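Interim report, section 4.2 (structural modelling).
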Amino acid sequence: MNAHSTILPVDLSQLSNAELKKLELKIARKYSGMFPWEAVVWAFGNLAVWLSLWPLVFMDILPLWAAFPIATVNMMLVYLPTHEAQHDIIARPGQKLRWLNELVGHATSWMIIFPFEVLRITHLDHHRHTNDPEMDVDITAKAPGPWSAIWNAIQGRQPAAKRNHDYAAALMRAGRPELLLLTLAYKLGFIAILGTLAWNGCAMEALFLWWLPYQIAITYIVFFLSWAPHHPGIEQSRYRNTRAWKSKVGNWGSMWMQFHIVHHLHPFIPLTRTPAAYWEVKPILEARGCDLGEL
Amino acid sequence: MERGLKAIVWFLPLIFAFAFLVPVIDQGMQALGLSAPFGLSTLTLALILAGAWGLFAQVTGRWV
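Predicted structure of the assembly:
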């Protein structure tokens, strides 16, 4: 597949770097600026479905074995709407719908036990330092293959994991040490809710509606959002620190991450528009020597 | 303040073990119809297993 661009000339070989850059920005702007209603519906729809599982299970309307996979999908779906909000894609500071941008971020990030501001600061730091062994907060996702990537994702959630220290260091660099305290409060709140449920006879519900779905989802998110698009995670230059790749589970199964290179180059493009932007900008990416895999 | 926070972080694995793992193991065994060995109750066994695992996680810095 290759979109016929109305912006690009047929032959790019005679264009200078500046001219390529100008055309790339023109394409990027074409796919940005619209209100990403999908992200908003996704955020609150997902939250509503997950919250509804609790009374449905407690009232024996839905069996726990059926609710567990739904809760797992809900947890997998949490991150990307907050990610749109982290990049101010729903609304930028000063815009009329800024409150909605912040609401989407805060209303969803707690499900994966992170304050929204922590996710925003650390993720923007990842963009600034992609693949930097010392500064990239997601560098611990780096692994030689998919199985080791899954293992690394699990190891990244251990009490003494380097990933915890990398996140803390990013907050300190940003001058936001108070967010360490807020993060700890979220973790303690999570344990308090799980413990309260569990010691009141609802341990299985807490396990299969939140704790286990959360663990599976974070592994999935780290695998598809951190490891796969940055593999092999060696180069740090703008056009080589992220790649395009063909996912075996398709675009929906990998949550648009096949086109993550577009996001890193132009983070203001809404997630669901990155495929179209990719196909149009692909000739420029080829001219820039990007790793586009088989996509 | 900082010392207190570090102490809480340090004890998180044990806090998690006794707050959550104990009832999960206890109620999980009951749901599966399993009984504890040596005449122990499922809760006692859960306290031993979760406590040991939590202690391991706290000392080594990893659950697995």
